[in-house]
C-alpha cells in the first residue's frame, strides 16, 4: 500500500509541480501542523494543472498524507493578484484562483492590471473585465490617437490632422472616462 502511495505521489508531484519560468499562478502548500513544528515542508503547486477545487484539495491531501487531518497553509503565491491570496483559503477561494489560472496568459495580465486599479470582486471573470477593456497602448496619447482615428479622423482633412492636440485630448479622456494601467486602457463607464 505504501509503495503504491509513493508512486502515486511521485506521479502527482510531477503533474502539479510549478515551473518558475512558466509564469503560471502558483501556491506554496504546506500545513499548519508542520509549520508549528518548525517545518515548512510543502511544495510549489502550479494552479493551471487543476480543473476544480476538489481536484486541488485531493492533491493537497495526497501531498501531506503523513498527517491524519492536515490543515493546509498556503505560505506564498506567485503570478496572481494579491487580492486572491491569503494563507488560509477556502474551497470557493481556491475555485476563483483556479478559474483565474485557467485564463490565457494575456487575459491574466489584463485582469491583474484591472484588479490593481479597480480591486477584486468575487467571481470576477474575463467577461467582466473585457467589457471595460479597450486594449494595450504604449501611452495615453497613443490611445487618444486611436480614439481620434476611430471617431473623428474621417471628418477632418489630412492636412488639418497635424494640428490636432493629441496630448490635450488624452488628458481630457483620462480625466474620468478612461484609466491607463501598465499599458492597458479600461473604460470607466459600463
Runs in which pLDDT lies below 50 for 5 or more consecutive residues are none
Question: How is the largest sheet built, in terms of strand order?
Answer: 2-1-3
Number of helices: 9
Termini separation: 57 Å
In one word, what is the shape? Answer: elongated
By DSSP, the count of extended strands is 6
Please tell me about this protein's structure.
- It is a single chain.
- The model has no long low-confidence stretch (mean pLDDT 92).
- 26% of the residues are buried.
- The chain is 45% helix and 15% strand.
- It is elongated and about 80 Å long.
- Helix 3 packs across helix 4 and helix 7 crosses helix 9.
- The chain is of the alpha+beta class and 190 residues long.
- The chain is built from nine helices and six strands.
Write the SSE topology:
Blueprint: H1 2-16, E1 26-31, H2 32-36, E2 43-46, H3 53-63, E3 72-78, H4 91-101, H5 105-118, H6 126-130, E4 133-136, H7 140-151, H8 158-161, H9 166-173, E5 178-181, E6 184-187
Antiparallel strand pairs: 1-2, 1-3, 4-6, 5-6
Helix pairs in contact: 3-4, 7-9
Main features:
190 residues; alpha+beta; three-stranded antiparallel β-sheet; 9 helices; 6 strands; elongated
Task: State the gist of this model.
Strands 2-1-3 form a three-stranded antiparallel sheet. Strands 4-6-5 form a three-stranded antiparallel sheet, with helices on one face.
Amino acid at each position: 500500500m505504501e509503495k503504491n502511495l509513493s508512486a502515486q505521489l511521485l506521479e502527482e508531484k510531477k503533474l502539479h509541480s510549478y515551473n518558475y519560468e512558466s509564469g503560471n499562478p502558483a501556491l506554496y502548500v504546506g500545513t499548519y501542523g508542520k509549520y508549528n513544528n518548525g517545518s515548512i515542508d510543502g511544495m510549489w503547486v502550479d494552479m493551471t494543472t487543476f480543473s476544480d477545487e476538489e481536484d486541488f484539495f485531493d492533491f493537497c491531501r495526497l501531498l501531506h498524507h503523513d498527517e491524519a487531518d492536515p490543515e493546509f497553509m498556503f505560505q506564498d503565491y506567485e503570478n496572481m493578484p494579491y487580492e486572491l491570496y491569503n494563507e488560509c483559503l477556502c474551497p470557493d477561494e481556491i475555485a476563483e484562483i483556479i478559474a483565474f489560472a485557467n485564463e490565457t496568459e494575456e487575459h491574466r495580465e489584463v485582469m491583474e492590471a484591472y484588479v490593481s486599479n479597480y480591486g477584486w470582486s468575487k467571481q470576477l471573470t474575463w467577461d467582466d473585465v473585457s467589457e471595460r477593456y479597450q486594449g494595450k497602448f504604449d501611452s495615453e496619447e497613443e490611445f487618444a490617437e486611436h480614439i481620434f482615428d476611430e471617431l473623428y479622423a474621417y471628418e477632418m482633412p489630412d492636412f488639418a490632422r497635424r494640428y490636432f492636440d493629441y496630448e490635450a485630448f488624452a488628458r481630457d479622456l483620462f480625466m474620468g472616462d478612461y484609466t491607463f494601467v501598465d499599458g492597458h486602457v479600461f473604460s470607466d463607464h459600463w
